[in-house]
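Ticket reopened. Same input as before:
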Amino acid sequence: MGYQVHKQYVDLESGFHVIELRDERGHKQVVQIMLGGAECPACGRLTPKDDLGDLDPSARIGEVTAERNLEQRNMIAYALKHGLILK
Amino acid sequence: MTLIPNLAQINAAAKGNNDLRETLLSLHLAVQTVQIQGPLTKVDSVPRKAAGPPGQSQLSVTGANGSFTVQITLPQQASGSAAPTNAANQPIYQEVSSSTVPNFSIGVVTYPLSTGTSFIFANPGATLYWRLRSSYDQKTFNNYSTQSGPVAAGLQTSAAINPNIPLSQGNFATVDSIAAGGSATVRIYGSGGVGTSWTSILGSNSKVIPAGTILNVTYGSTGFVAWDGSKYQFKAGLTQTFPDTWLPVGKVSVIASGAGLVLPVVHLVLGTGGAVLAWNVISGGTDLTADVTLAIVTSTGAGANPGAQTISGGVLQSIAPGNPGANYAGGDTVNVSGGVAAGVGGGGGPVGSNAGRLYGNTT
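Engineering reply: fixed in the latest deploy. New output:
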């Protein structure tokens, strides 16, 4: 199990693809892919980044998820080894 | 109907739910109080009709500390030739309204009808004209009585603020950046390391915020990171993170890209006794985003070090002479490394430092 994508959306106002990861215990991680580039300091209007066509969000989300799950697995292994409960 | 309160029954019904038990107990006590006071007197639901509008109430509005204080004197409280009217003390509905101009032609705000006689309206910095009209039945009103002259609410002073309100804030977050291919990644995490949640402190209150990873960030950029309640905001300007509901996290100077980096070539100019007189830049390299590290490869010399580096447009232009040292030989070379800005992290860090509140232009 470990972290999985709980919900995701694109927030046009801030220019982010927001991905919320959750594990089976309800722990949360927020992963965001920056889609907006320069922002007008006065009106806040975003200019989209020019690399959006090359982005592979699934791969990037997968990398982060794998990293977090590896860390979590190490902690779970420690807890099991020492007979500790998981929260 | 007769109610027979039974505490055991309440406890059983609550089934361990303490909130429900306390609610039921409160109701039980309220019913007991009513029973002690004896039977309730029936209240006629049809209001007694009054003929016409009530006599004129008197309006007094004062302003201080960013608020208007409205006081209404009822007609039965008046003295002199105006008194007494409304001898039966019937409820009188008051309609207070304000405007930015004395003739109430624009900017009129009408406040909700109320039988109250004292109100406070917060409106810092406003200067307004005030008027009042009254009614028994909420339909038939008497004439407006207008307070002469404008009233200024003023601004709130420190005397109006509770002592020790939590203006101090910080956090235990670390915001840093790492290279990730064609773009950088900004990480926000707690004292437990990457991927751990962090704590925001406001006064004596604390909140736990999930860790975050921001992908596809431009190399070499600078950003101010805030938590808006559901996601992170990454803004180029500090003032863009000022919405009241956002939690400041920290400033980050994002790591620069080393993709196009070509390191400079530097030779030594030696003088008497093998001292280093100058650091001669043979080629300045390209895409430098930070000072390079210069190390002399020698088997005889010691003590020399370079002075300040001048980098313009990503190219090393010159190196000022530093300590000359001694005993360097003609075959000694200069090893050049670095040249890529590593970025500067922000946030309150493991000790919850002042940087966690984004104050000023600090990290």
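The longest helix of chain B spans residues 18-37. Chain B has four domains: 7-37, 58-158, 169-256+344-357, 265-338. Please confirm and we'll close it.
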